[in-house]
Amino acid sequence: MLIIFSGMILGSGLIGSEASLYAADGAAHPEGAPLQWKTDLALWSFIVFIVFVIVLKSVAWGPLIKALDERELRVVTAIEEAESKQKESEELVKEHTRKIESAQDEIQAMMVEARSDADRIRQDILEQARNEAESIKAHAIDEIDRARELALKDLFDQMNGRVVDATEHVLGRALNESDRERLIEEALSQISSSSN
C-alpha cells in the first residue's frame, strides 16, 4: 500500500512539474484530451503498475488464492462427505426395508402358526368336551342303572316280605326257609313274564 501511495504521489509530482513547465513558459494549457505520448509519464506508470501487481500478488492474490483453494477443498470434501452419507443412508434405507420385509414375513408366518395353534387348541377343547360329556353320560347311565337296581331290589325285598306275610296269613302257619324261597321264585317268574 505504501508503494501504491508513493507511486501516486510521484505521478502527481510529475504531472505537477509538467504543469509548472507550462506555467514557466507562459504558455497556456493545452485544451482537450491529452493525446501526446509522454515517455517519462508512461515509464513511471509502467513501474507503478508492475509494483502494484507485485504487491497485489504477494499481499492479496496469494492469500486470496490460498483461501479460494482452501474453500474449494472444503466444498469438494463436503460434497464427497455428502455423497458418502447419501450412499450410506441409501444402504441403511435398503437394509431397513429388508428388515421390514423380513419382519412382515415373520409376522405372516407367526399369524399362520397362531391360527393353526388356535385351530388345534379348539379341536383339543372340543374333543376334551366330548370326552367329558361321554364320561358324564356314562357315569349318569351307571348311576341310573344302580339306582334302578337298588329300587328293584328294594321292591323285590318288599314284595317278598308281603308275599311271605300274605301266604303265612292265608295258610295260618309260619313258612320255613325253603317254602319262602319257592314262593319268591314263583312270584318273580310271574312278574318277569308279565313285564316281557
Automatic annotation (TrEMBL):
CDD domains documented for this protein: ATP-synt_Fo_b
Membrane-traversing stretches: 42-64
Keyword set includes Membrane: yes
Subcellular location: Cell membrane; Endomembrane system
DNA-binding recorded as keyword: no
Coiled coil, from the record: 75-150
Gene Ontology annotations for the cellular component aspect, listed alphabetically: endomembrane system; plasma membrane; proton-transporting ATP synthase complex
InterPro entries listed in its UniProt record: ATP_synth_B-like_membr_sf, ATP_synth_b/b'su_bac/chlpt, ATP_synth_F0_bsu_bac, ATP_synthase_B_chain
Domain of life of the organism encoding this protein: Bacteria
Keywords: ATP synthesis, Cell membrane, CF(0), Coiled coil, Hydrogen ion transport, Ion transport, Membrane, Transmembrane, Transmembrane helix, Transport
Gene Ontology molecular function, alphabetical: proton-transporting ATP synthase activity, rotational mechanism; proton-transporting ATPase activity, rotational mechanism
UniProt main location, coarse: membrane
Membrane association type: Single-pass membrane protein
UniProt-listed HAMAP family: ATP_synth_b_bprime
Functional description taken from the UniProt entry: F(1)F(0) ATP synthase produces ATP from ADP in the presence of a proton or sodium gradient. F-type ATPases consist of two structural domains, F(1) containing the extramembraneous catalytic core and F(0) containing the membrane proton channel, linked together by a central stalk and a peripheral stalk. During catalysis, ATP synthesis in the catalytic domain of F(1) is coupled via a rotary mechanism of the central stalk subunits to proton translocation.
Subunit structure: F-type ATPases have 2 components, F(1) - the catalytic core - and F(0) - the membrane proton channel. F(1) has five subunits: alpha(3), beta(3), gamma(1), delta(1), epsilon(1). F(0) has four main subunits: a(1), b(2) and c(10-14). The alpha and beta chains form an alternating ring which encloses part of the gamma chain. F(1) is attached to F(0) by a central stalk formed by the gamma and epsilon chains, while a peripheral stalk is formed by the delta and b chains.
Family: Belongs to the ATPase B chain family.
Protein name per UniProt: ATP synthase subunit b
Organism: Gimesia alba
